[in-house]
Amino acid sequence: MSHARTRRTALTTGLLLGAGALLGAAAPTGATSRVLTEHRLSDRLVELTMDSPALGGRSGVALLTPRGWDRRRPGDRWPTLYLFAGGDGDHRIWTNLFKVQDLAELRDVLVVMPGMPLFGFWTDWWNHGKGGSPQVRTYFLHEVVPLVERDYGAGPSRAAAGESQGGFGALGLAARVTGLFGAVAAFGAPVHPIRHPEMWLSGAKFVGVDGYAIFGDPWKQWRTWLDWDPYHHARGLRHTPVYLASGDGTPGPLDGDEPDPHIPGTEKWVALADDGVVSVTEAVCGEETRMLSDRLTSLGAPVTTHIYPGGHSGTYGHRELRHALPMLTAALRR
Predict the structure, then answer these.
(1) 232 near 193, Cβ under 8 Å?
(2) What is the distance between the terminal CA atoms of the chain, rounded to a whole angstrom?
């Protein structure tokens, strides 16, 4: 279910709040983060280490800075692209593997790449009804966005993209927080996870995480599973340009060197997979992507969809981000 340095999955819970309420109001009590360290890694790349009350620990955030950023004055703002990490939570994936620093289209864009806990699913964890950290959605909305908009030149013109769980997070936020992003893209993502709950619960267990702490039981806490599900809240994306991409689970040209591992608990979906499928995780993501695409099309939403041969452990996000960039940057220019 994962590339050695990326990919896992995504889900959430929460109240429907507008972007103004979430981003304009003061952060919840005890949820104000602070920057512990700031390191320049290259002429454009800056890495922050944050102390995050929402996560209950430290988190890394990488910034790919635009031209003129080092000479910024108070009040200077740049259009901002948020890139969401996959299930391994590695904020460095976008520069180390996907080489976003090489994209000329982003020379005048601030790119913000937050990390998250392993298999954090960009959600505020249910924690068996107790709530509390990690609150990954709260971390992004109340800590990362206010911080970079206050201190690092991020502007209110925002777009977002994510791979695997990051795609779920980007789409779920765009669907539930009206006006947060002007455009959004997801690559190889679980965009309707309650459709295949065994996949994501088994994936969590496989990497040593209690999936029931994240989501609850899909039969007993199904409202929690649906709360930020992009398919369930597709109406919230009717006016947001969306780019959806996923492999179909068959062998593809950019697959990783190692095949997807067998994940105990996914035998049902392995048995139901079409002939030729070698990555059941990506086949499931592909099915959910088609479902969301059809739903958005029926709503008249501006959606572009690319289904291709490929598995879940390759570098397709590198290619698909480049396909999505014209849509994302067009939204940032508005």
Answers:
(1) no
(2) 37
Q: Which of 163, 48, 184, 182 is nearest to 114 (CA)?
A: 48
CA distances from 161 to 34, 53, 100 (A): 25, 25, 12
Domains and CATH numbers, the chain: 19-333 (3.40.50.1820)
Give the Cα separation of 217 and 164 in Å (integer).
21
Q: What is the pLDDT of residues 282-308, one digit of tens each?
A: 999 999 999 999 999 999 999 999 999
Q: How many CB atoms lie within 10 A of CB 147?
A: 22
Rounded to an integer, what distance in angstroms lies between the CA atom of residue 239 and that of residue 294? 15
Residue at token pair 């259009």 = 79
H-helix segments, the chain:
19-24, 93-96, 136-138, 145-151, 165-176, 197-206, 211-215, 222-226, 267-272, 280-298, 316-333
- pLDDT tens digit sequence for 248-269: 999 999 997 777 888 999 988 8
What pLDDT is stored for residue 313 in this prediction?
83
pLDDT of residue 272: 87
Residue type at position 73? R
pTM equals 0.90
Determine the Cα–Cα distance for residues 66 and 70; give it in Å rounded to an integer.
9
Structure tokens at 20: 């103004």
Please report the sign of the dihedral spanned by the C-alpha atoms of residue 311, residue 94, residue 229, residue 139.
Answer: positive
